[in-house]
Amino acid sequence: MEFTVRTRRKRELVDITDRVQQAVRAQEVSEGLCCVYVPHATAAVVVNENADPQVCEDLLDALEKLFPDGVWRHDRVDGNASAHLKASVVGPSKVIPVVGGRLALGRWQAVMLAEFDGPRERRVVVVVR
Ligand code: ZN
Fold first, then answer.
1. What is the Å distance from ligand 1's center to 87 Cα?
2. Cα separation of 71 and 27, whole Å?
3. pLDDT per position as a tens digit, 72-104
4. DSSP string, 35-56
5. 117 Cα to the center of ligand 1, angstroms
6. CATH at 33
7. pTM for the structure as a whole
8. CA angle in degrees (0–180, nearest 5) for 97-99-102
9. 52 C-alpha vs ligand 1 centroid, how far in Å?
10. Tens-place pLDDT, residues 27-48
11. What is the number of domains present in the chain?
12. How far apart are CA 77 and CA 74, in angstroms?
């Protein structure tokens, strides 16, 4: 199945844990694997803490320091090389175990869509087996 997320900022992490969990429930798989994937070149999937949202801000800042805007070859094409680099390093998917019909996330883990070139409408594909 898949769902869409409307991002609001150029760069942000959007918590999609509840929607992914709903997708897992709908599949009625009690033990298995859940793949969360975004079919985009400038977005990614992150699993980390969102209880303190500053963790998300820190991740975005760290990626910004690694991949600043405006200094890459692809910036001469469409000006978003930094977003492509961030999305490549973070990756378009994560696999999360399903145990007892639920995502086996740790207490502080959340599943987040990472937007690096928004605002846009993003697709999230969830496959559970
Ligand atoms: Zn581009």
1. 11
2. 44
3. 999 999 999 999 999 999 999 999 999 999 999
4. EEE---SSEEEEEE--SSTHHH
5. 9
6. 2.60.120.460
7. 0.95
8. 90
9. 31
10. 989 999 999 999 999 999 999 9
11. 1
12. 5
